[in-house]
Amino acid sequence: MNHHAGRKRKVWAVATGLLALFVGVLIACEVAGWPFLAAPVQRALSNTLQREVQLNDAGGAERATVRFVGGLKVKVPQLVIAAPQWSKRPFFLQATQAEMHLSYGDLWRARRGAPLDIDLLQAERLVVHAERLLDGRASWVFGDPAKQKTATDQRALQLPTVGELRVLQGELSFVDAPLKANITAELQLAEGTLAPSGPLPAAVQGLIASARGTYGQAKLTASLRTAGVTPLLRSDAQAQAVPVVLELKAGKAALTFDGTVTDLFKLANMKGAFRVSGPSLAAAGDPLGVTLPTTGAFVLAGRIVKNGGVWNVVTDDATVGSSKLTGAMTYDTRPAVPMLSGRVSGPKLLLADLAPTIGGEPDAAPAPPASASSPRSARVLPDKEFDLPSLRAMNANVLMSFDRVELGSLFALPLQPLKTHLTLQDGTLRLSDLVARTADGNLAGTVVLDGTGKLALWRADLRWSGVKLEEWLKQKRAGGGPPYVSGSLVGRASLKGQGRSTAQILGSLDGTITTSLRNGRVSHLAIEAAGIDIAEALGVLIKGDDLLPVSCGLADMQATQGVLRPRALVVDTSDSTVWADGSVSLKDETLDLRAVVTPKDFSPLALRTPLIVKGPFKDPRISVEKGPLARKLAGAVLLALLNPLAALVPLVDTGGAEEGGDTCAQLLARARQAARDKAQQPARKP
Predict the structure, then answer these.
(1) pLDDT-derived band of residue 395, with 50, 70 and 90 as boundaries?
(2) Residues 183 and 220: beta-carbon distance below 8 Å
(3) Which of 7, 175, 232, 262 is deepest in the core (most CB within 10 A)?
């Protein structure tokens, strides 16, 4: 029995010795770094990531070490993770004198296609080539290549996260087809050392990075400084906000940001002050996928807050051309079609600063002089095509209010104020509840631009009343003479058109414009000039101009396929009556108008024949119909103008009993008789 017990003790001793030897070997191998397992670990990593992984420098004597306690810990003279098969890059990641710590759980999730989480990554030099294709495949998504083809955009944007990163020198290339980005960056980490002087605190963990490349169609340069590295790269719920200073230039646009950022790759949250400038608001919105109007040069400064997919921007100081604006906007990227909402207001808005919105040129950028090889265009109306797809890129709901809207050099008074409600829904832009006041009058209506088709469909319904012309229009005359025209305008316009530019829309215009002048007065000199009454005009010049009361002033224009024709156009004063017909072609940009003047007095030098205004908008010509038949034709023309006026008078007549009855009706009866008499007169012999 003692013999049996002795044998048992020997077995236990041998087993214990073998176990101790085995444990000792394990400890020794763990301490030594399992040098003979570098190749198997390399194969295992390759199988897990579905990419070729190299842990050693083929030409170096130093070998890789691997440790398994507490996760996979690899230390190699050179680590290379291959690029996917579809990539033309030599590798996805290359690190020299690198050390990487991975948990087994993270490795398992990466094998199933989740983004790779790295507990620690440090290297003397790190080079990363990140790519994403239009179909969503990304070089930073690991796993089965066949499964990557069905990866969603959300997954493709989930870049690898690093718990602790230490890199003496780094290079990053980022090529993203959906974003049209091709960027190369250089970076240095000041982890635990003094950060460079500047707005950041002196003794912090820090990142210094500079980048250059292209974003969309614009060349891009950027510099980035942060007060930390590790928290900035985290994408989990525990990610902390990190102070960041960013300076970026894209094309002619520039951006500065000073604030905090959470998750640098996805910008999960950010908060800070910004300043952005550029040649046009549209250019600034393009990189963000935000549809902004085309404008002149601008500078915006304010505060920005981003929480998840929602951006909130408060602009305290905005200058667009010479306009001064403020605003508070929210941009929500979570819906299938992003939504922009908020308000825009300001003390001053110049209409000229929005000229590029309709295809015109801003005042600050005059057109270059035409050369002999490129003759100056005879066109006046803006013919730059609209960017209709941008109207479908987002929806919008914005309240707009401006204290003062400057209309241009022709007008003495601005719109003061102007308010409207801008909505953009499924490609249709609408300005509703449009209300403005100027010169004791008001303007109201709705404007719609439907950009859902290949051609923009435009329509407008506008009404105005009580606008005093003597205050609204600039009519300053030498010697302090009276204004050429005064009185209150009342009217309405209902128009529609279609096209890819402002010129095309106006060239297809259909609808009506009707307006009348109430309590009007007009320059005596202007009336005599319109009648080519040389004697009377000389008399007015000698004794001084005065204002003639306008008993009837009407204009009714019919637009058909871009051609405006007066159905009735008449100005009746105590001195003369001016009638007009003809056409104004917005399609060809030409005038073909004829005015017939019927004086109420007699002047021996008066030429009582129709006055002709004809030619292109840029160079119209004024003449009179010549020949003995012209006088006969003048009466016939006048008769042709009376029927439209007869239909219009009951709708817009401004007369009253205290003013001597229906003044336009009286004019109509008087003109019919004069036209009949003139038509019956025999033509004079030359």
Answers:
(1) very high
(2) yes
(3) 232
Taking the C-alpha atoms of residue 349 and residue 327, their distance in angstroms, rounded to an integer, is 13
Core vs surface per residue 5-22: b (16+ CB within 10 A) or e = eeeeeeeeeeeeeeeeee
562 torsion bin: left (phi>0), alpha (psi -120 to 50), beta (else): left
547: its two tokens:
């204002």
Q: What is the pLDDT of residues 327-363, one digit of tens each?
A: 999 999 999 999 999 999 999 888 887 766 665 555 5
The one-letter amino acid code at 51 reads: R
| Under 8 Å between Cβ of 597 and 531 | yes
Cα–Cα distance for residue pair 350/296, rounded to 1 Å: 11
How many other CB atoms are found less than 10 A from the CB of residue 396? Answer: 21
Question: Which range (28-32, 191-195, 281-285) has the least confidence?
Answer: 191-195
Question: Rounded to an integer, what distance in angstroms lies between the CA atom of residue 131 and that of residue 126?
Answer: 16
SS3 210: strand
Q: Do strands 547-560 and 339-350 pair parallel, antiparallel, or not at all (unpaired)?
A: unpaired
- At position 15, the amino acid (one-letter code) is A
Q: Is 322 exposed, middle or buried (0-12, 13-18, 19+ CB in 10 A)?
A: middle
Distance of CA 389 to the CA centre of its chain: 12
Task: Provide the residue type at 347 as one letter.
Answer: P
Q: Rounded CA gap, 126 and 191, in Å?
A: 15
Q: What is residue 63's predicted lDDT score, i.e. its pLDDT?
A: 77
Both tokens of 364, joined, read 């600050």
- The pLDDT of 51-60, averaged and rounded, is 74
Question: Which bin fits 640, alpha (ψ -120 to 50), beta or left (φ > 0)?
Answer: alpha
Lowest mean pLDDT: which of 74-88, 223-237, 432-446? 223-237
Neighbours of 84 (CB within 10 A): 19
| CA pair distance 12, 15, nearest whole angstrom | 5
pLDDT tens digits for range 195-250:
344 444 444 467 888 999 988 777 889 998 888 776 766 666 667 788 999 999 88
Half-sphere exposure of 611 (CA within 13 A, CB side): 19
Distance CA(358)–CA(148), nearest Å, equals 44
Rounded alpha-carbon distances, angstroms, from residue 648 to 175, 546, 568, 574, 652: 66, 29, 8, 21, 7
Between CA 323 and CA 336 the distance in angstroms is: 34
- As a whole number of angstroms, the distance between CA 181 and CA 256 comes to 20
Cα–Cα nearest to 217, from 124, 287, 132: 287
Got the DSSP string for 270-327?
Answer: EEEEEEEEES-HHHHHGGGT------SSEEEEEEEEEETTEEEEEEEEEEETTEEEEE
How many residues would you count in the chain? 686
Q: What are the residue ranges spanned by the domains of the chain? A: 435-627
pTM for the full model? 0.70
Mean pLDDT along residues 653-674: 55
Tell me how far apart the alpha carbons of residues 238 and 220 are, in angstroms, rounded to a whole number.
32
Mention every residue, 6+ apart, whose C-beta is less than 8 A from residue 326.
315, 316, 317, 318, 344, 345, 346
- State phi, psi for 616 to the nearest 5 degrees: -70, 160
Residue 266 burial by Cβ neighbours in a 10 Å radius (0-12, 13-18, 19+): middle
